[in-house]
Amino acid sequence: MTLAPDMAPPGTVLSGSTVLSKSTVLSGSTVLSKSTVLSGSTVLSGSTAAGSSANPGKLTDLFQLGLDAPICLTWELTYACNLSCVHCLSSSGRRDPRELSTGECKAVIDTLERMQVFYVNIGGGEPTVRPDFWELVDYAAEHHVGVKFSTNGVKLDAKAAAKLAASDYVDVQISLDGATREVNDAVRGPGSYDTAMRAMRNLADAGFKGFKLSVVMTRHNIPQIDQFKEIADRFGAQLRLTRLRPSGRGADSWDELHPRPEQQRELYDWLVAHGDQVLTGDSFFHLSAFGGGALPGLNLCGAGRVVCLIDPVGDVYACPFAIHENFLAGNVREAGGFESVWKTSTLFSDLRKPDTGGACKSCGFYDSCRGGCMAAKFFTGLPMDGPDPECVQGYGEAALASAVIAPRSSVDHSHRTSPAPRTPLEPVPVTIGRRRPPAHDCDESPLAGFAAGAEQGCGCG
Amino acid sequence: MAEHEVETEALTSDELLVEEVSIDGMCGVY
Amino acid sequence: MAAAVSFDLERAWRVDPRVSMRPEPFGALLYHFGTRRLSFLKNQTVLAVVRSLADHPSARSACLASGVTDAELPAYTRALAALADSKMITERMPS
């Protein structure tokens, strides 16, 4: 049984319970009887307020305030990768000489076991190119930390597939961004489609049922959604559709790749129709503001509160889409290790403060979307306490018109190919979101859709 | 800060001691 | 969405071995490795009940031993029903 987050706008009275106003704060000294019902909009002043005699309210409130340990976290094992996908969130390609050693990785796993982190999402770069990859996966499983890893499939031969099929604690996810070679390879590079297909064939032949086929949704592959489902079904895999963010190299390809507004609606309708058959990485919660029903999963940003990223050199970031010094909480090599960073870093303490909604407070859909994705806002130059750039109610477009600087990360391990690497730390005037796409796909005139004096910004939809 | 808490009847059908959600990594595996 | 009302308090139950349980200040988090579901136990008493299920001949006995009163029993029954519904707890042969 899955309980969806409360979809009702603030002020709605729900049968049998009373909705409390958004500004209600219960202090640590308030003792609540077991019969008190708190709505999803109640803010508690900290986990100590929820002692054994108090009702801590909804799961989402609890998650906003942060837990003593992550539920799961992303761990990028290496920045090395055999591919150079144009939208790579971690700008991967070249190994970093400071990457954690095997021993240091095992120490991290020991910490995660002690903290009872339920599982790790292992990625990179391409994690399987690390020579100690299998050793680390085995070590994690032996130490009660579940492993899900993401791969382009380059090393998944029959032998590797058999090993994975035999394990109960390891889940694997193959990345594919086009249902056809043409669409996929345009993003992920020549040969990548074939590599993914071969890996999936090997997994299916080895009897691994239910591995994941994971797709980053773009303007070019949203029309292929049904074909992706067919591919997943063909291999006995579960389809996973995730959101593109303007992070890493995704910042450079955002204008060309991000969905059009009408495509967001199409995607949302498809996700609602396919319900629990399809995973989303809990990444489409901004679409919940379409209001036609909550998507399964956790509809809020868990960065620094419930999840985080450990990168290949041990840096701890709020989330894998926020590899930037502003979201760097510490490093696992510091005294106290990962546990100390999670529990005491200034960045995470700030992220765990109650969320007041900011500029989104007056929107009736705020409870559904919680203001969207922090990383998407940051890398499009939008303020953290305002709308998501892809706000389905349209508030993001208006906000983008005022955005001045799109931050750039200095962390870039891209393969050294032309064009020349960008100068780190230099602010770049915002062009993200401002280039107007063709008024109509069939228009050839460069002036199609242009009206003198018209407001800049995506005018489609 | 205003404190409004309204007590419902004891243990109404809407009070649940267990809450659940299906999670898929919370943007973890990309 | 009401939990199934057919939960049998008289049977013996246990936490599924694929579930990882993590105590928290407010109660506990349970994660099922098979279903990917996360459950949130909202107080210490329901945690005590769930933890002790395997040691009791019936769920009712586990509830009473954890201090659940007669008036509270229906709510705890609904909680256990929710956990059974999502496969966090399963019936076992009474030992």
Major sheet strand order of chain C: 2-3-4
Widest β-sheet, arrangement of strands of chain A: 8-7-6-5-4-3-9-10-11
Amount of beta strand of chain C: 15-25%
- Report low-confidence residues of chain A grouped into runs of 5 or more: 1-55, 434-445, 449-461
- What overall geometry of chain A do the principal axes of the alpha carbons give? globular
Percent in helix of chain A: 25-40%
- In DSSP terms (H or I, runs of 4 or more residues), the helix count of chain A works out at 14
Largest sheet of chain A: 9 strands, mixed
Main pleated sheet of chain C: 3 strands, antiparallel
The residue ranges of chain C in which pLDDT falls below 50 over 5 or more consecutive positions are none
Please report the distance between the alpha carbons of the first and last residues of chain C.
Answer: 34 Å
Give the largest interface pair and sizes. Answer: A-B, 60 and 28 residues
What is the rounded distance between the termini of chain A?
Answer: 36 Å
- Radius of gyration of chain C equals 12 Å
Radius of gyration of chain A: 22 Å
Task: Give a verbal description of the structure.
The complex is a heterotrimer of chains A (461), B (30) and C (95). Chain A is globular and about 55 Å long. Chain A is of the alpha/beta class. In chain A, the strands form 3 sheets. Chain A has a 9-stranded mixed β-sheet with strand order 8-7-6-5-4-3-9-10-11. Chain A has helices at residues 59-65, 102-115, 133-142, 158-165, 181-188, 192-205, 225-234, 250-257, 261-274, 337-344, 346-351, 366-369, 374-379, 395-400, and strands at residues 25-26, 43-44, 72-78, 119-124, 146-151, 170-175, 212-217, 238-243, 309-310, 315-317, 328-331, 405-406, 428-429. By secondary structure, chain B is mainly β. Chain B has one strand at residues 18-22. Mean pLDDT of chain B is 59; it is low at 1-14. Chain C has 95 residues and is of the alpha+beta class. Helices cover 31% and strands 24% of the residues of chain C. In chain C, the strands form 2 sheets. In chain C, strands 2-3-4 form a 3-stranded antiparallel β-sheet, covered by helices on one side. Chain C has a two-stranded antiparallel sheet with strand order 1-5. In chain C, strand 2 and strand 3 form a beta hairpin. The radius of gyration of chain C is 12 Å and the shape is globular. Chains in contact: A-B, A-C, B-C. The interface between A and C is medium-sized, with 26 and 23 residues. Strand 1 of chain B pairs antiparallel with strand 4 of chain C.
